[in-house]
Amino acid sequence: MEYFLGIDIGGTKSHALLTDAGGNAVGFAEAGPGNHEDVGYAGLIAVLTELVDGIERSTGIARTQIAGAGFGVAGYDWPSERAPTLEAIAALGLTCPVDAVNDTIIGLLAGAEQGWGVALVAGTSNNCRGWDRRHREGRVLGNGPWFGEHGGAAELVMRAVRDVSLAWTQRGPQTRLTEAFVEYVGAVDAADLLEGLSQETYELNADAARLVVQVAQEGDEVAQAAVRWTAQELGSLAVGVIRQLALQAEHFDLVLVGSFYNVGPLLMEPLRATILAEAPHARLVRLAAPPVAGAVLLGMLAAGRATDAARPVVVDAAQAAVAAFREAALQ
């Protein structure tokens, strides 16, 4: 019997899923964060070890029985990080073929029916990567506003603070965002708000994005423009990857990953328009499966196995495994 291992290393939690050759779940494990930027490579090794040890204990299947393993690793962003990432994986003592990618790619594999396309991440911040039919990769930096990459909740809040500043200095129109932020942080007035933000006695983080969206939904034109700008900036990340991979005329899935898409039509309509203007045949789909499903599929690919038949089974297995784990944790 062949088994395939997928591991999703995240910034807050990490998952491992073991399946048989048909994609049926055999074992599941969860551990803490493993992004080396936060926990170091020693921390990454510790999380990987905890996950694989947990799979072995719960299933009785030895790691030597694994035929292929795929790893989606948060923080694995650049070629210079490949060697230490693979060294961390090697510490597991696996004897099978392995592959490691940035965790955005396993979201793509979990969500794209054809196993290629573009994944556009929007949560606290943003990221975008893609594969063409030959698995050639396109990407943005994934390093945020310093590099001109906007499109998550944090960037929306940054834009809204900019708009409040413009209103206070009379360089821009007045906006109800000012009053909303004053109340949110407990400031006295706009001047106190801006002084507190500049002196770091007040904080507006990504959680305040919901407030910007609420003000926009109530009809404030400045807030609406901020959401629209964020959507267009987010869409531009996908456009860049589409151009890198020459996907403009292709029919492909563009997988939307992250909670920021819950904003709804105010975000989705300008986002869709931005993307379809460049790639009219793109199909925007929300990622429903846990990304660890994509890691299992990556493991199958690493072993030279076809994934078309197994993909829907792996996706269902991952959803059921995560749901069962969460239910057990509540008991």
At the third CATH level, what is the topology name of the domain at 3-115 and 288-330? Nucleotidyltransferase, domain 5
SSE succession: EEEHEHEHEEEHHHHHEHEHH
Per DSSP, the total helix count is 11
Note the main sheet.
Answer: 5 strands, mixed
Give a verbal description of the structure:
The structure is a single chain. The chain is an alpha/beta fold and 331 residues long. It has a domain at 3-115 and 288-330: 2-Layer Sandwich (Nucleotidyltransferase, domain 5), CATH 3.30.420. Helices cover 47% and strands 18% of the residues. It contains eleven helices and ten strands. The protein has helices at residues 36-59, 82-90, 103-111, 153-168, 177-185, 190-198, 209-217, 221-245, 265-278, 292-302, 311-330; strands at 3-9, 14-20, 25-31, 66-73, 98-102, 117-122, 126-131, 137-139, 252-257, 282-286. A five-stranded mixed β-sheet has the order 3-2-1-4-5, sandwiched between helices. A five-stranded mixed β-sheet has the order 8-7-6-9-10, sandwiched between helices. The protein is globular and about 70 Å long.
Features:
single chain; 331 residues; alpha/beta; Nucleotidyltransferase, domain 5; five-stranded mixed β-sheet; 11 helices; 10 strands; 18% strand
Q: Briefly, what is this?
A:
With 331 residues, this protein is of the alpha/beta class. The protein is 47% helix and 18% strand.
